[in-house]
């Protein structure tokens, strides 16, 4: 526990001697000992002792002191009106914040004002609009196992408290559930007791009551969203994860009804979607680019959504592409119709721009925190629904027709808000002026009485001046003395007898009359009763709206899907995408393009045909476009299974179960893994989990070790995928010897990226010499052109020339060398590796046989390294 959290030591030492207010504070700190308690005192939230030092340091506010009968304590606080930004800063610093508010009127309190924690704010349970990214989900996750011992089946549940989205899924391994956890990208995770310290996560990890993970307790909790939880969840792991998560969410949202909008639990079945783990999402640049930014990503290209509802749905669709061909085709039919019906598409997009984020509005309503403007925003969205329904009246595709039928305008709710709430209400519901005239007769009468009383008072000054002849007479009002008639001292002799003195000032006297007093009582009484009645009426209206949460959420789902479909159609038209054809065996793409790269540069389209031969070995120099080519194939496949058109003139695709990527080098220094070990670990997952229905991207497998070892691994991997797995595979490599596999294996074809020109013809500036054409051609590249790439990158010419000399010496040439070699694979050999230079003996046949029999996918990374090291030592011994 952080030393700043829990009960302050200095106060705890005083025990029963503390003042009642400080006793309250200490008790709340004890109850919420994992959070920093912000304690309302008037218009400020205050913290004391160690917590005050944290608040002062993190928020850069003054550290003051509070002194009472028991001592002097450090104190720091922030104004309530600016608390949201302060809470955000504390969350960013890694703290949970418990907000303790005054829950009774200070004027009505007997003794100390009662306070209670009204919510615990954590990164995953934020509900304040100021702290949430518009259009992005904000998940808190919970991880549990079926046995409670960290073995067997694993499950992860997630909930977005701001919208009510609630999901659960499971996997049969730790690696699988980690992938699921990463796929949701939660801001916070609650772990079952059996996982304490086992998972290193990139988010806040929160402990929670172990009792909440008990199966019966979880089942009872879930009955609030599913009358028969077993009909939704598939195993005890899912039951424990979902039930405990709901309990934790309720713990953070302490107000009654705070989770009324969490009305349904959805089970994500991995068999229903194209699986993309966190590695694939990163390497394909779906949500973030290699630098970690969200610019220049697939989402950045596609996100032309009109409202926040659509953006969140677009992200969900990208995280969970479909595997059900009928559902994919239904989306494609809708997108196709909207691409052709341009007027319908643009009118729909214009209307959706007037749709508020009703998912979060419903959450605010259900937490009883919605104000009158929130309800008017809800009505503004409902006003748009009939127009959207009319816009879709001529559409034919099944999905658009179903969406039109599902557009519940909630006329009853819309009418209620329209009748009850003024068009331009104040933000605070206690300010009055919220309920519209004509909604409630009693309220209108009270307002009329108050207004008529004020009008009588407004005319009193002129009438009394005329009646008394006192020209300086004035009528006023203040909070202490109410209404009064003020007369200056020189005119006091003219004051009528019925005036009663109310207040004496230096230069004047203030009076009231029986009629003025009666009118004052009427005005104040009517105003107070009107304010109280208006407040009650507003809460009744809000409660009635909250009762329609499920209908509003269903409407939000429909509007979100329409926005996403219209967006995909808009992007397809703007970027010249075409409809993919599904249900093919293998991938065939004509004029394929990378959807992100093509936006920033002149792009060279390329074809791919992996139907007869499903494995492509791709050679060519760096900078030629191998990685881009592989990624564009994967992104085209992903877009197709989202239900989107794709960047190509033609695409005939299968429905794949998973996309695997092993692209680029990375270290896991904290985990003790080198680049090569990380590569082997990722490769192991591919070889174990890929199926014939998978799409596999492999880039430079084996380059993290010696050429001999690396090439052996690369060849063995190719043979294993070809012989055992059968997945559609793109394998980019510098090992040109692998090109021979195109002749040896029926299902392998060889491609290369074309290069034009002579590397020795350049002037060292990159303006002449080699030109990378970025076009794919049949066969193997004749060279790697590594030195030429270095020259184009700006490496000093002396280094470039020295590199050429070293290559020439290594290859035995008397002329300064280009990167070209007489033997495929020679460019991989380093000048300093004697075991690979010169007249190296052929690999013994028995070693080749042993390599062929090696079942790489069944080895752990360490076992694979040991076997390779044994083989290498045997070759070295033979050479000696």
UniProtKB/TrEMBL annotation:
Keywords: ATP-binding, DNA damage, DNA repair, DNA-binding, Nucleotide-binding
Record-annotated DNA mismatch repair proteins mutS family domain positions: 694-710
PROSITE patterns: DNA_MISMATCH_REPAIR_2
Start and end residues of each stretch annotated as Disordered: 806-846
One MF annotation (Gene Ontology) recorded for this entry: ATP-dependent DNA damage sensor activity
Superkingdom, taxonomy of origin: Archaea
Any single biological process term in GO: mismatch repair
Keyword flag Transmembrane helix: no
SUPFAM superfamilies for this protein: DNA repair protein MutS, domain I, DNA repair protein MutS, domain II, DNA repair protein MutS, domain III, P-loop containing nucleoside triphosphate hydrolases
Family: Belongs to the DNA mismatch repair MutS family.
Function as written in the Swiss-Prot or TrEMBL entry: This protein is involved in the repair of mismatches in DNA. It is possible that it carries out the mismatch recognition step. This protein has a weak ATPase activity.
Name of this protein: DNA mismatch repair protein MutS
């Amino acid at each position: 526990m952080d030393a700043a959290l829990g009960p302050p030591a200095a106060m705890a030492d005083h025990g029963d001697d503390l003042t009642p207010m400080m006793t309250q504070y200490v008790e709340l700190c004890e109850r919420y000992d994992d959070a920093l308690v912000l304690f309302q005192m008037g218009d400020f939230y205050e913290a004391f002792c160690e917590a005050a030092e944290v608040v002062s340091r993190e928020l850069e506010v003054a550290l003051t002191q509070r002194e009472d009968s028991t001592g002097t304590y450090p104190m720091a606080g922030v104004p309530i009106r600016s608390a949201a930004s302060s809470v955000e800063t504390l969350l960013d610093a890694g703290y949970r914040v418990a907000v303790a508010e005054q829950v009774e009127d200070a004027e009505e309190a007997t003794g100390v004002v009662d306070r209670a924690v009204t919510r615990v704010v954590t990164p995953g349970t934020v509900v304040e609009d100021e702290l949430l990214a518009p259009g992005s989900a904000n998940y808190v996750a919970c991880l549990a196992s079926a046995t409670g011992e960290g073995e067997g089946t694993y499950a992860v549940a997630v909930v977005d408290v701001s919208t009510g989205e609630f999901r659960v899924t499971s996997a049969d391994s730790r690696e699988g559930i980690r992938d699921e956890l990463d796929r949701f990208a939660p801001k916070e995770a609650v772990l079952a007791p059996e996982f304490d310290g086992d998972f290193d996560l990139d988010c806040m990890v929160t402990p929670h009551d172990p009792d909440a993970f008990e199966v019966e307790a979880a089942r009872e909790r879930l009955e609030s969203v599913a009358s028969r939880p077993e009909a939704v969840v598939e195993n005890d792991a899912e039951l424990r994860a979902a039930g405990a998560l709901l309990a934790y969410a309720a713990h953070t949202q302490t107000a009654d009804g705070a989770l009324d909008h969490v009305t349904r639990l959805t089970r994500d079945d991995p068999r229903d979607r194209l699986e993309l783990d966190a590695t694939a999402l990163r390497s394909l640049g779906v949500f973030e680019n290699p630098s970690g930014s969200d610019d220049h990503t697939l989402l950045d290209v596609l996100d032309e959504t009109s409202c926040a509802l659509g953006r969140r749905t677009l992200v969900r669709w990208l995280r969970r592409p479909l595997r059900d061909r009928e559902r994919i085709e239904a989306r494609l039919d809708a997108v196709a119709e909207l691409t052709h019906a341009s007027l319908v598409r643009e009118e729909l997009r214009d209307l959706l721009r007037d749709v508020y984020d009703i998912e979060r509005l419903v959450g605010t309503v259900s937490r009883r925190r919605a104000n009158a403007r929130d309800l008017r925003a809800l009505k503004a969205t409902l006003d748009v629904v009939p127009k959207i329904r009319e816009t879709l009246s001529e559409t034919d595709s099944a999905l658009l027709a179903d969406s039109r039928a599902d557009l519940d305008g909630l006329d009853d709710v819309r009418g209620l808000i329209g009748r009850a709430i003024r068009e331009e209400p104040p933000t605070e519901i206690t300010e009055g002026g919220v309920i519209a005239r004509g909604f409630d007769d009693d309220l209108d009468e009270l307002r009329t009485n108050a207004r008529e009383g004020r009008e009588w008072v407004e005319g009193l000054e002129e009438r009394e001046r005329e009646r008394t002849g006192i020209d300086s007479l004035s009528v006023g009002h203040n909070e202490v003395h109410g209404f009064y008639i003020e007369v200056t001292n020189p005119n006091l002799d003219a004051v009528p007898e019925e005036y009663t003195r109310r207040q004496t000032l230096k230069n004047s006297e203030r009076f009231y009359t029986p009629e003025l007093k009666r009118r004052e009582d009427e005005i104040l009484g009517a105003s107070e009763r009107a304010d109280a009645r208006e407040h009650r009426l507003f809460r009744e209206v809000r409660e009635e709206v909250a009762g329609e949460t499920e209908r509003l959420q269903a409407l939000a789902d429909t509007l979100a899907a329409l926005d996403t479909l219209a967006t995909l159609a808009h992007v397809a038209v703007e970027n010249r995408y075409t409809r993919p054809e599904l249900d093919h065996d293998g991938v065939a793409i004509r004029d394929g393009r990378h959807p992100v790269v093509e936006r920033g540069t002149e792009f060279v389209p390329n074809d791919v045909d992996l139907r007869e031969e499903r494995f492509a070995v791709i050679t060519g120099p760096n900078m030629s476009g191998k990685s881009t080519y592989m990624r564009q194939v994967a992104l085209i496949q992903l877009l197709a299974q989202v239900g989107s058109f794709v960047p190509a003139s033609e695409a005939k695709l299968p429905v794949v179960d998973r996309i695997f990527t092993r692209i680029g080098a990375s270290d896991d220094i904290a985990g003790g893994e080198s680049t090569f070990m990380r590569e082997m670990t990722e490769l192991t997952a591919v070889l174990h989990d890929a199926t014939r229905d998978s799409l596999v991207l492999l880039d430079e497998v084996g380059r993290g070790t010696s050429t001999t070892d690396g090439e052996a691994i690369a060849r063995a991997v190719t043979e294993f995928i070809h012989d055992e797995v059968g997945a559609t595979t793109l394998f980019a490599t510098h090992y040109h010897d692998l090109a021979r596999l195109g002749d040896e294996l029926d299902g392998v074809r060889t491609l290369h990226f074309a290069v034009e020109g002579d590397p020795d013809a350049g002037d060292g500036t990159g303006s002449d010499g080699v030109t990378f054409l970025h076009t794919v051609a049949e066969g193997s590249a004749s060279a790697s052109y590594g030195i030429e790439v270095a020259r184009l990158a700006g490496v000093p010419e002396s280094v470039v020339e020295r590199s050429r000399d070293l290559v020439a010496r290594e290859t035995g040439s008397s002329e300064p060398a280009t990167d070209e070699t007489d033997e495929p694979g020679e460019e991989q050999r380093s000048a300093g590796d004697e075991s690979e230079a010169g007249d190296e003996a052929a690999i013994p046949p028995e070693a080749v046989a042993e390599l062929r029999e090696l079942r790489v996918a069944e080895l752990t990374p360490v076992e694979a390294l040991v076997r390779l090291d044994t083989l290498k030592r045997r070759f070295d011994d033979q050479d000696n």
